[in-house]
Design brief:
Length: 628
Amino acid sequence: MQGLLLCLLCTLPASTRTPADAEDDPVPWYAWLETTGGPLGFGIEFEKSEEADGWIAYLVNEPERIPIRDVSWNGDELTLDIPHYDSCIRAKRDGRELRGTWTKRRGKDKVAVVPFRARPGNALPARPTLTVLPKYVAGRWAVDFESDELPAVGVFEQEVGSNKLHGTFLTATGDYRYLSGHVAAAELTLSCFDGAHAFLFKATVLPDGSLRGDFYSGNWWHDTWTARREDSVKTVDAFRQTSWSERASLADIHFPDTQGKMRSLAEPAFDGQAYLVQVFGSWCPNCHDESRYLVELDQRYRERGLSILGLAFELTGEFERDSEQVEIFKRRHGIRYPLLIAGSAAKADATRALGVLDRVRSYPTTIFLSGDGRVRAIHSGFSGPATGEEHRALRAEFEGLIERLLAEETNTAQLRGTLLACTWRVSKNGTETATIEFREHDGELVARRGGAEGSALPVHLLADAVYMAGRTYRYDAQAKVLFDVSDFSRRITPSRASLTPIFGERTPQVDTLRHRLASQSPFVRREAIVAAAYAHPELLEETWDVLAEDPNLEVRLAHAWATGFLSLQGKRAALARNLEHPNAMLRRETVRALLRLGRDDENALRHLAAMASDPDPLIRKLVRDGAR
């Protein structure tokens, strides 16, 4: 590498400095992206590295220096590969400059390409000398972005009489990391480039002292903003932005790891005295900031019982590519806690895929739970190191909360008592496959198949989630049913009750069941679908179109299962619309139903073929097995 970079020195004009111009004192470069808002500037510095067997480049947004270890020069082209953000700078020499592009993956079929230029030195090209002192803008500002209904806070640092400016913006979803720039008379410019973000802020200091300006992100986003000085301004409370969804279950936190193995928060392997669940994306710089901090927390609190789990929502929806990015993320930060592939990064899709939050508002989102699975707090966004005092305050809040959770006593007595109270029936598609009894054994809960003499299976409880025999079940206290979160056809019910215990020992009459299919209660509608499928299937044919569009996920799950169970052949095309839903459980039941409906429909076959590359490993297995 050193020799190749020195080749550049030999072939450029003497006045043109290169990354390897001097072994002891490599020259810095001033670089910029040519955005729709103008040049977005940042620094690049090079440093010899024995570890990298060549050179390390640093992206500089003062005071931050971000190391880039994948640096190459082939004699004509410089490449800075930034794998943790799936982005890359490639530039060729052009006289005194390097010219090229920054390429960044922004989605499955979306790649951004922004022109890149760089020249030796650490400042902008020379400008005429200014005769007017720069405006002084240091301090806190109340900021309004036109596209955001929630206020933001600008925090700027500037020495009196200096044109150098540093700062950041704090918002309800996180911060804009380290911004650096300058003030020229009444015009200010701030920018940041970290391989993922490409932010450019411009503003004018108006006669009344307020600011009005523009915000550009890469060459794909533009917004306007205004600001006024306000020393005491704060952002909205990040602990009050997001809430746990009604009837949400910890059993729903059930996703594949990067090897494709389905994992559940209810597994004994994740057992803890307190839990922290991070909703993140490897593409998100704020998530990188938080994950560095979570690694600290893991090192400090793991032995005391803190269990951390990361749920990754990625850009492409392609399992192998997304898993690779998450593995790069994991290695970058030395993460020891598990990371699971949870779905697509689009927030609306992530909300539906996760299913436990009212809305995924920001990356990261951090969920704090007690040892028995009760949700104690949900924090939206992350105020990173660039925010200074806010970052220190956030660390204190997180650590205080963890200390309180670790000091709490866990309590699963209610669910444990319910399971111990009776014998239970395991059924699949209405057919009994086993009976089980839950027992206490040496202080631990076990399940014995076929009664007391059967083999004992360890049982682990977390809130309403029950983990046994490698499967995760969710206990619905209102319906008195344990649901297999991977297979809707499998349920466990009290052996003396019907398969729908909410309706008693007998299935309701037709008119009663028709009324319950239209109930205002989603769980009543769900259980009515199951009862009708077993006893009065004609009711489901009558109400199929209405139930197919039901807004409740559990109702849609039951509906998809029933369509396959009853072999409602004329419903395949409409049913296939579920395959676009971000929730993997619904897609699974839809695939099962389509396979059950047969393979004589070309449209159904085409839909199933497309699911062979679904991000969910259980769906891929269903399709593979069904194709045999």
